[in-house]
Design goal:
The complex is a heterodimer of chains A (about 270) and B (about 290).
Chain A (H helix, E strand, L loop, with lengths): L1 H29 L21 H6 L3 H34 L5 H13 L6 H10 L7 H25 L2 H9 L4 H30 L2 H6 L8 H10 L6 H19 L2 H8 L7
Helix pairs in contact in A: 1-11, 3-6, 3-8, 3-11, 4-6, 6-8, 7-8, 8-12
Chain B lengths: L6 H34 L15 H7 L2 H32 L6 H13 L2 H12 L5 H8 L9 H4 L1 H26 L3 H9 L4 H29 L3 H6 L11 H11 L3 H9 L1 H17 L1
Helix pairs in contact in B: 1-13, 2-13, 3-8, 3-10, 4-8, 8-10, 9-10, 10-14, 12-13
The chains are: A mainly alpha (about 270), B mainly alpha (about 290).
Chain lengths: ~270, ~290
């Protein structure tokens, strides 16, 4: 048993180190003073740690703008996606929808469609709708990447619930909204959490949509702006790292603790429980 | 369950409930797919929908060395990335399978690269692999393993993007396999232990069959994800040097957005469709089982 435990840490030690290495490096840069950042010296430790990079953020409007854009887009994507998936999943599972089976398959197929396939025509569509160059372009498109997954997960979840749960509520005269609110919502919140984490992962891992649809710097998300800054060879990314960490770190950490239910959601219909 | 008297009202209600998903997801995707097909057979450019030119875009691509090199890179990127992620994900899942002190914390730390913004992670790796104040160089120079700074992402571009991709994506395999391990009935394992089966035999004969669907799902998501994985390559190497790390999505982006050839870019993006269809068929079989 002791041998087994040693083997475990022999595997986990390097894995955890490499996982956290780039994140640790970025945190170090965020605490480096301007002349220190990326200059000669130890790239792995701030010689004169300072919070100056963080205080700059709230004085310079471009950072505040990017942070607000990022938070706004994330919150909107999560709320819109969860709500739309919930309604669609409910309709497909409990209401009379023609070809509902086929529709479920359409949602599942859309879930697997790689993000890189459609960005060129979507650019044209957004331009026709006059949504380009603002965070609205992302609020309009990110949900299309989350809703198929969300609808699929919720539909499967509803189907696994005992049917009399909903039937008896209907028999008692409850309407669809009543059933959804009072009978289903209390039991499905883990599934909703999974969809929220999935939505955050979509927003946090995108660069294609944000750089394609938003060419004006003021409308960018933090990562869109940061990617442009870095490819333009800036010398002091400390402030940008500070801004990005301030927004990303708390959310990412929160989501990381939901990894378990997230995995079960991703494996819906495929991994048995 | 549907009550007959309510049928008509239910139809309206169902339409109302499905409307947001249809409007925000199915409609734009269907429209975009149609437009993409049209673009791919036209000479569309920014500001114009172009005129029909048949399969000229695809013929033009087939004649480009850069296109074939990109396809080869994409294949390497997808295969190497997926295999490495699967191996590391399995190691992760095995090490996390049974409870121990600090398990939750380790689990969260390992999942962090998946949810941490990939742009930030890639930028960090960019500076780790750089020869200018590079983090990796600093360590190697200190350890006297090299005598002068090396631009690792320039010397080994494809390997560099694979490493970042594996860093980012291994956790997805890990959590999927772990969830699958949890679904193994414990009495089955206990019975095998009582019968004298050792750890390796129990894994091979009892746990492994339960892991198969999760592993296949992980592979599908990794293959499809790497097709659309734009951030890593664009930020780390921009497909360079000399196209040595160009992959499908960066190639489509360059043609469509930087060169303005929307038709050519759309044709490149459509190359993903056959692989997507194959992956979808495998996934559907998994779901039906």
């Amino acid at each position: 048993m002791r041998l087994w435990n040693a083997a475990r840490w022999l595997v986990l030690g390097p894995l955890v180190t490499v996982s956290l290495l780039p994140i640790f490096w970025m945190v170090v840069q965020a605490f480096k003073a301007e002349p220190d950042a990326l200059s000669i010296g130890n790239p792995w430790w701030p010689d004169h740690p300072t919070a100056a990079n963080f205080s700059v953020l709230f004085r310079e409007s471009q950072f505040t703008g990017w942070m607000l854009n990022t938070v706004g887009v994330t919150v909107a994507t999560v709320l819109i996606s969860v709500a739309a998936s919930l309604l669609a999943g409910f309709a497909l599972a409990y209401l009379r929808v023609p070809y509902s089976r086929h529709l479920v398959l359409v949602f599942f197929a859309t879930y697997l469609l790689p993000q890189g396939v459609l960005f060129i025509p979507l650019l044209r569509l957004l331009s026709r709708l006059h949504l380009l160059n603002s965070p609205w372009a992302l609020v309009a498109t990110y949900p299309s990447l989350v809703i198929p997954f969300g609808t699929w997960v919720l539909w499967s979840f509803f189907r696994r619930l005992p049917p009399d749960l909903v039937e008896s509520a209907y028999a008692d005269g409850a309407g669809a909204f009543g059933v959804l609110r009072h009978v289903l919502l209390p039991v499905i919140w883990p599934a909703l959490g999974t969809i929220a984490v999935f939505a955050v992962a979509i927003v946090f891992n995108d660069y294609l949509y944000t750089t394609t649809f938003i060419q004006e710097t003021s409308g960018q998300t933090l990562w869109g702006a940061l990617g442009a800054l870095v490819t333009a060879d800036i010398n002091n990314p400390g402030e940008s790292f500070a801004a990005a960490l301030l927004v990303a770190a708390p959310v990412a950490l929160l989501c990381a603790f939901f990894a378990d239910s997230f995995a079960r959601g991703i494996g819906t219909g495929i991994i048995e429980h | 369950m549907v009550i007959p008297a309510r049928r008509r009202r239910q139809g309206a209600l169902a339409a109302l409930f499905l409307a947001p998903a249809a409007l925000l997801c199915l409609a734009p995707i269907a429209y975009a797919l149609g437009l993409e097909l049209w673009f791919s057979v036209t000479d569309a450019a920014p500001g114009t929908d172009g005129t029909f030119i048949g399969l000229a875009n695809f013929q033009a691509l087939a004649g480009l060395d850069s296109f074939w090199q990109m396809l080869q890179n994409t294949a390497v990127y997808i295969t190497a990335g997926t295999l490495l992620k699967a191996v590391l994900g399995l190691a992760m899942a095995l090490a996390l399978a049974s409870p121990f002190r600090g398990r939750r914390l380790v689990y969260a730390a390992l999942f962090l690269p998946f949810i941490f913004p990939v742009v930030l992670g890639t930028i960090a790796w960019y500076f780790l692999f750089s020869n200018v104040h590079g983090g990796l160089d600093w360590l190697l120079l200190r350890a006297h393993l090299e005598t002068q700074p090396v631009d690792w992402k320039g010397r080994l571009p494809l390997l560099s993007v694979v490493i970042v991709n594996v860093w980012h994506g291994s956790a997805l395999f890990g959590v999927l396999l772990l969830a699958a391990m949890r679904s193994v009935p414990s009495d089955l394992l206990d019975a095998a232990a009582v019968d004298g089966a050792n750890r390796a035999r129990r894994f091979l004969h009892i746990v492994a069959p339960y892991l198969r669907p999760a592993a296949i799902l992980g592979c599908l998501l990794s293959v499809l994800g790497n097709f659309g994985d734009f951030a890593t390559v664009e930020l780390l190497t921009r497909g360079g040097p000399l196209g040595r790390s160009q992959i499908l999505s960066t190639y489509a982006f360059e043609n469509a957005l930087l060169a303005g050839a929307l038709g050519l870019g759309a044709a490149v993006a459509l190359v993903m469709i056959p692989v997507y269809v194959a992956a979808l068929l495998i996934a559907l079989r998994l779901v039906r089982d």
